[in-house]
């Protein structure tokens, strides 16, 4: 606003003044001129309108008259005063109007200078900013709503656990942002009469609203039976219902206003393209506008809600399997890491279990990245993980590896299993890595091996006869035992019933002993004197110690046998002759003592003295207790007394003496009472044999036996863990015994075959899971994988058969059978299978598509081809040479089109994997010739000399003729096309020989030319799709750049190899090897 | 060698342009040519006129070529009649199925010149 123009006196009527006046009155801004005594001296139309007063009621009146004293004193007077002192003042104010509600103004006071440059008035301009203020507020609100929506979206996306809390929180945010009284979510459903109904699931009400809603009626109702039938069509097509209740149809209005609702907005929610329900906003305090911006923002909220619901659905489906997983996850001691596969080849850690940290010694803060390739050193990643994981993803099968790894905890042998987790489309979305520290097991296995070895060595060298029997059969005997039983060789006795070698009188004793040991009783088994029979039937007196034992995994009994024939004889003879007694006493190989009734040594022989290191006179007169190990004293004394009193005739014990040097020696003492001398005094005569060496051997044996047992335990524990893991794997797993009867089936196997574990265990696998051909005919027993495995002991894989479920339906399965081999013998088989119905279906669809496409594209091309041919050859049509040339061009172009369609279809075949449908015997020698024949014309035209080096030994291969043809056709066609006039093309075929055996395992083919070659810089790219070398493009535009891509695809699909060498302007050689193919 | 004019050829082909060009070309050679646009019609014409050779497409509406061939081979008359498949379907399954029913050629239309088709027909009929 220009002050100078207003400064003119309003009563002047000059034209210029009239014009100014007009502008001032036309302005929407409120304008006044206030004098120094606070009177309105001039006002414009807008000002009058705003105050709803005619001009004459304003002019000449003071501000206090118009605004009241209070307002005048508080603000306006001060502003006018300041303005009159020369300041420009700005502020905001509002004015309650009678007709248009509250209006907002930006007010400015300008000092008015008269012609003497003195301030005489205040010119006040007030601009009505109500509209822009409203717009601003709407923006702020939209901003608030948007923020609420994004907050809600965030909550929905991150949270999983407490849905109800998340929903209530989300609705609250939306409610606060939209400044409504109530926000709610309704879900549709069908009632028991299958009528469309809707029910309130979540609700939020603003704190200052007392919920006065008629809950029953509006929280769950059938649309058709309610006043809101109209809404179904609107919401169903995705539109919103909005507006003030006063404008709603009468029956709706009645119900809604009864609830106190003044205005509402209903936004439909669609989940997976289906109308799921709605989210609604009620305003109870006032009527309101729902701006397009608000509606849009709230539609977004509805979409977010839908996404959350979709997620919630998936979540609850997942939860079951997650629960199962987490059970294993938390209970096993294996380290488990779950990765998400992020294409193309990154792996993000989702979860790590506790065992991972304890097994590796890593701390949580050690893991600096969430990505596998950043977590491990690059060299480890490429060498170990990359290929391994790629295989797991490619084969969609768990793969196990055993590696020595270095962790913070130290060096460990780790067994890692990577299990792919597939989604519905059979894509690998996650990887479950299960790691187990098997250092201890490895060690246990080694100890087991070592201790088995040591046991055998020890036993073999023992002077005592040692034998082992299990299930009543002698399974092992050492050399001493072989000798004892009078055999020449171990084989004469091992394998025979153990009782064959026990005297009839002792069969019961032996059987009883075996029973005690079987029962696992801890009872000490005493050493017993028995009679054995030699192989020729001669009885021998023996002393037998027995011990429970595990031999090659089976419970067994180990017996230590000593021939006591000699000693027995000695004893017998002792009784016979005093003379002999003396001799034996003094010169015998055994220690001999005589003690009196006071248990004092009366006589000791030299052997005994040596044994204990005491001289004769050091011993005579001393009690035997003095040299006996304190542990045995009480028992020995008691027995000695019994002997003397003749309560028992003989007593035999194993005990320890303490030698003069303080060493303990183990002995067996056999004592008997005798009467000797003139007085016929009672003495105890004892024979003492040093068995220290034997004892040590026995102790060592015992220790090793213990080690064996603990190693076994360790292995059993891990077996249990393996079983838990088996149960969780998605593939069917079946274990059978040697006869092919089911020993174990995991959950997946039972589920896919529709059977229960209790019905199948112990039954032949074939009865449980019959295998059929596609037509339903049963697979002959010789062809069944399980039989092949059990007979040959080799792994068998097939995808040719179907399993028949218990309900008679069948499904195609990829089956792998592997033998379980223990110590060289086939103990059973493991069958792993997977339902491949989907794959089969997809394969069929793919080849159908391709053959349809090939037919549809080729038919019109054939028509063009044949008609052009007709025209060219037509005898009746008078073609000018030019026309004929044109027709030839049409023919050639069409021909190229045909070739290209062919090529593109081959590319599709390769890319869809729909290749190799047939499997025929192919003679490469003949095939190469027939393809060269095809090029006869052009070969002649370019004067190319063709060399063929065909090895007559080139074997037949099994493959799809059409595909092998394509390989040859492309290579030979390229060679001819890219070789200049007069060049040479050489084709060779030969058998591919295995290095070690020189057996032919495939064919080798080469195609060599003397052509343009491939530029060195581009050699890396020649097998890529649509690639054409620069030097070739320069020469001809004809060619698709797909030929070698196709060749490579076919060669790869047959498991063959292709390579080449090339020098620019010298030529190229391609080498292809193909395996013999499946029989 | 026999004269072409004494020989009748039945062409079973649903695509009219292809049927027309084939019959024109074979008529030029002097053969008597019959046409049918699907397998059912083809079978009826064959039964009625007993042609010396049949050229037949595989993918056709209603009765396809393979079904017609099967019917023919099971019928009293048609067991021995020479049949040449003329198709654009290069599917080994189809090829194998046709071969099993007894055919005298499996020609892929897009790869065969009209002249060569004629030569093949003549060869089969022993026509100069």
Structure in words:
With 1079 residues, chain A is an alpha+beta fold. Chain A has 34 helices and 40 strands. In chain A, the strands form eight sheets. In chain A, strands 27, 28, 29, 30, 31, 32 and 33 form a seven-stranded antiparallel β-sheet that branches. Chain A starts with a helix and ends with a strand. Residues 1-10 and 320-325 of chain A have low confidence and may be disordered. Chain B has 128 residues and is of the alpha/beta class. Chain B has a five-stranded parallel β-sheet with strand order 2-1-3-4-5, sandwiched between helices. At the A-B interface, helix 28 and helix 29 of A face helix 1 and helix 4 of B.
> What proportion of the residues of chain A form beta strands (DSSP E)?
25-35%
Parts with pLDDT < 50 across at least 5 consecutive residues of chain B: none
Low-confidence stretches of chain A: 1-10, 320-325
Number of strands of chain B: 5
For the CA atoms, what is the radius of gyration of chain A?
Answer: 52 Å
- The first-to-last residue Cα distance of chain A is 100 Å
Tell me the fraction of residues in β-strands of chain B, as a range. 15-25%
Biggest beta-sheet profile of chain B: 5 strands, parallel
User: Most extensive interface, residues per chain?
Assistant: A-B, 22 and 25 residues
Tally of DSSP helical segments of chain B: 5
Mass-distribution shape of chain A: flat
Sequence-ordered SSE layout with sheet pairings:
The complex is a heterodimer of chains A (1079) and B (128).
Chain A: H1 3-6, H2 15-26, E1 30-35, E2 40-43, H3 45-51, H4 63-67, H5 69-84, E3 89-97, E4 101-113, E5 119-128, H6 130-158, H7 163-178, E6 182-190, E7 196-205, H8 215-219, E8 220-222, H9 229-236, E9 241-244, H10 250-258, E10 263-271, E11 274-283, H11 292-331, E12 335-342, E13 346-352, H12 354-360, H13 372-375, H14 378-395, E14 399-407, E15 410-422, E16 428-437, H15 439-461, E17 465-470, E18 473-477, H16 479-484, H17 507-518, E19 528-533, E20 539-551, E21 554-563, H18 565-576, H19 578-587, E22 591-595, E23 601-604, H20 606-612, H21 616-619, H22 630-644, E24 650-658, E25 664-676, E26 681-690, H23 692-728, E27 732-737, E28 742-745, H24 747-753, H25 757-760, H26 765-768, E29 771-772, H27 785-792, E30 796-798, E31 802-804, E32 810-822, E33 825-835, H28 837-873, H29 881-912, E34 920-922, H30 924-934, H31 936-941, E35 945-950, E36 957-959, H32 961-977, E37 984-993, E38 1000-1009, H33 1030-1035, H34 1043-1053, E39 1057-1063, E40 1067-1075
Parallel strand pairs in A: 35-37
Antiparallel strand pairs in A: 1-2, 1-5, 3-4, 4-5, 6-7, 6-11, 7-8, 9-10, 10-11, 12-13, 12-16, 14-15, 15-16, 17-18, 17-21, 19-20, 20-21, 22-23, 22-26, 24-25, 25-26, 27-28, 27-33, 29-31, 30-32, 31-32, 32-33, 34-36, 37-38, 38-40, 39-40
Helix pairs in contact in A: 6-7, 6-11, 15-23, 18-19, 28-29, 29-34, 30-32, 32-34
Chain B: E1 8-12, H1 16-28, E2 32-36, H2 39-49, E3 53-56, H3 65-74, E4 83-87, H4 92-101, E5 106-108, H5 114-125
Parallel strand pairs in B: 1-2, 1-3, 3-4, 4-5
Helix pairs in contact in B: 2-3, 3-4
């Amino acid at each position: 606003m220009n002050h100078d123009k207003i400064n003119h006196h309003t009563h002047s009527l000059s034209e210029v003044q009239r014009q100014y006046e007009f502008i001032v009155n036309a302005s929407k801004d409120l304008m006044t001129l206030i004098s120094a005594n606070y009177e309105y001296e001039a006002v414009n139309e807008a000002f009058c309108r705003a105050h709803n007063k005619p001009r004459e009621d304003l002019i000449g009146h003071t501000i206090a008259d118009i605004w009241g004293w209070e307002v005048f004193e508080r603000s306006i007077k001060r502003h006018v005063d300041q303005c009159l002192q020369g300041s420009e003042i700005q502020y905001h104010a509002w004015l309650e109007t009678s007709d248009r509600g509250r209006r907002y103004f930006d007010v400015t006071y300008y000092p008015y200078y008269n012609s003497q440059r003195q301030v005489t008035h205040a010119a006040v301009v007030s601009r009505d900013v109500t509209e822009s203020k409203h717009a601003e507020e709407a923006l702020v609100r939209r901003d608030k709503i948007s923020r609420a929506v994004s907050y809600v979206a965030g909550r929905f996306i991150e949270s999983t656990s407490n849905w109800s809390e998340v929903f209530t929180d989300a609705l609250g945010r939306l409610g606060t942002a939209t400044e409504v009284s109530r926000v709610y979510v309704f879900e549709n459903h069908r009632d028991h009469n299958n009528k469309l109904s809707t029910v309130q699931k979540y609700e939020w009400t603003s704190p200052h609203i007392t919920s006065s809603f008629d809950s029953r009626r509006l929280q769950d109702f059938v649309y058709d039976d309610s006043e809101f039938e109209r809404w179904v069509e609107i919401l169903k097509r995705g539109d919103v219902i909005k507006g003030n209740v006063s404008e709603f149809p009468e029956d709706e209005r009645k119900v809604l206003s009864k609830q106190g609702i003044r205005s509402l907005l209903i936004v439909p929610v669609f989940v997976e393209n289906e109308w799921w329900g709605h989210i609604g906003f009620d305003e109870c305090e006032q009527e309101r506008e729902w701006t397009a911006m608000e509606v849009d923002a709230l539609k977004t909220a509805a979409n977010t809600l839908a996404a959350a619901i979709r997620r919630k659905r998936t979540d609850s489906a997942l939860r079951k399997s997650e629960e199962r997983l987490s059970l294993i996850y938390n209970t096993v001691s294996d380290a488990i890491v779950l990765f998400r596969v992020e294409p193309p080849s990154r792996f993000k850690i989702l979860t790590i279990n506790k065992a991972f940290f304890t097994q590796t010694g890593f701390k949580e803060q050690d893991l600096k990245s969430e990505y596998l390739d950043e977590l491990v050193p690059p060299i480890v990643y490429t060498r170990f993980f990359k290929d391994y994981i790629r295989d797991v993803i490619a084969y969609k099968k768990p793969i196990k590896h055993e590696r020595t790894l270095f962790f913070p905890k130290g060096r460990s042998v780790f067994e890692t299993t990577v299990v792919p987790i597939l989604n519905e489309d059979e894509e690998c979305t996650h990887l479950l890595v299960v790691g187990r520290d098997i250092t201890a097991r490895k060690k246990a296995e080694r100890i087991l091996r070592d201790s088995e070895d040591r046991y055998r060595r020890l036993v073999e060298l023992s002077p005592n006869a040692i034998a082992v029997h299990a299930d009543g059969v002698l399974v092992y005997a050492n050399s001493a035992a072989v000798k004892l039983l009078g055999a020449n060789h171990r084989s004469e006795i091992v394998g025979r019933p153990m009782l064959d070698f026990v005297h009839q009188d002792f069969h019961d004793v032996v059987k009883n002993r075996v029973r005690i040991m079987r029962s696992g009783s801890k009872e000490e088994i005493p050493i017993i004197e028995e009679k054995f029979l030699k192989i020729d039937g001669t009885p021998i007196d023996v002393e037998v110690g027995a011990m429970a034992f595990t031999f090659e995994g089976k419970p067994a009994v180990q017996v230590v046998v000593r021939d006591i024939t000699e000693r027995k004889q000695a004893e017998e003879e002792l009784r016979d002759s005093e003379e002999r007694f003396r001799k034996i006493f003094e010169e015998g190989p055994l220690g001999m003592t005589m003690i009196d009734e006071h248990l004092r040594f009366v006589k000791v022989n030299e052997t005994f003295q040596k044994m204990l290191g005491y001289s004769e006179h050091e011993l005579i007169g001393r009690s035997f207790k003095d040299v006996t190990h304190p542990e045995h004293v009480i028992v020995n004394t008691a027995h000695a007394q019994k002997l003397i009193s003749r309560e028992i005739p003989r007593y035999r014990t194993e005990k320890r003496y303490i030698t003069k040097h303080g060493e303990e020696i183990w002995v067996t003492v056999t004592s008997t009472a005798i009467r000797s001398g003139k007085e016929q005094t009672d003495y105890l005569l004892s024979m003492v044999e040093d068995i220290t060496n034997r004892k040590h051997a026995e102790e060592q044996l015992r220790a090793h036996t213990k080690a064996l047992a603990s190693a076994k335990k360790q292995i059993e524990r891990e077996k249990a863990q393996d079983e838990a893991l088996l149960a969780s794997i998605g593939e069917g797993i079946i274990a059978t015994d040697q006869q092919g009867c089911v020993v174990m089936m995991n959950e997946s196997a039972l589920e896919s075959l529709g059977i229960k574990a209790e019905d199948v265990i112990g039954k032949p696998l074939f009865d449980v899971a019959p295998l059929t051909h596609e037509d339903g005919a049963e697979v002959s027993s010789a062809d069944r994988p399980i039989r092949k495995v059990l007979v040959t002991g080799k792994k068998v894989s097939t995808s040719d058969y179907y399993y028949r479920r218990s309900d008679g339906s069948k499904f195609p399965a990829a089956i792998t059978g592997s033998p379980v081999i223990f110590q060289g013998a086939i103990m059973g088989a493991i069958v792993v299978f997977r339902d491949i119905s989907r794959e089969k279906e997809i394969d069929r669809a793919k080849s159908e598509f391709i053959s349809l496409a090939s037919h549809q594209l080729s038919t019109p091309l054939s028509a063009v081809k044949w008609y052009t041919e007709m025209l060219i050859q037509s005898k009746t049509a008078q073609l000018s040479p030019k026309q004929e040339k044109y027709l030839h061009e049409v023919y050639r172009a069409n021909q190229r089109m045909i070739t290209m369609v062919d090529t593109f279809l081959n590319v599709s075949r390769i890319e869809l994997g729909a290749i190799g449908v047939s499997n025929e015997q192919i003679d490469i020698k003949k095939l190469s010739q027939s393809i060269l024949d095809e090029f006869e014309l052009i070969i002649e035209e370019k004067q190319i000399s063709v060399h063929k080096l065909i090895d007559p030994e080139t074997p037949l291969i099994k493959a799809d003729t059409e595909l092998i043809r394509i390989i040859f056709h492309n290579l030979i066609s390229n060679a001819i096309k890219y070789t200049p006039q007069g060049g040479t093309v050489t084709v060779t075929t030969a058998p591919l020989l295995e290095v070690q055996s020189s057996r032919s395992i495939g064919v080798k083919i080469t195609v060599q030319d003397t052509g343009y070659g491939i530029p060195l810089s581009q050699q890396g790219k020649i097998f890529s799709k649509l690639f054409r070398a620069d030097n070739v493009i320069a020469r001809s535009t004809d060619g698709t750049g797909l030929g070698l891509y196709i060749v490579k695809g076919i060669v790869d699909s047959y498991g063959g190899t292709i390579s080449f060498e090339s020098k620019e302007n010298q030529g190229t050689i391609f080498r292809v090897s193909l395996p013999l193919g499946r029989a | 060698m026999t004269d072409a004019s004494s020989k009748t050829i039945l062409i079973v082909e649903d695509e009219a342009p292809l049927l027309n060009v084939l019959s024109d070309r074979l008529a030029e050679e002097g053969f008597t040519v019959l046409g049918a646009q699907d397998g059912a019609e083809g079978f009826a014409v064959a039964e009625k006129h007993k042609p010396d050779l049949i050229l037949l497409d595989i993918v056709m509406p209603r009765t396809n070529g393979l079904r017609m061939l099967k019917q023919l081979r099971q019928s009293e008359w048609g067991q021995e009649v020479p049949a040449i498949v003329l198709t654009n379907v290069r599917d080994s399954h189809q090829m194998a199925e046709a071969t099993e029913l007894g055919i005298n050629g499996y020609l892929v239309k897009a790869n065969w010149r009209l002249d060569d088709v004629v030569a093949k027909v003549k060869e089969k009929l022993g026509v100069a």
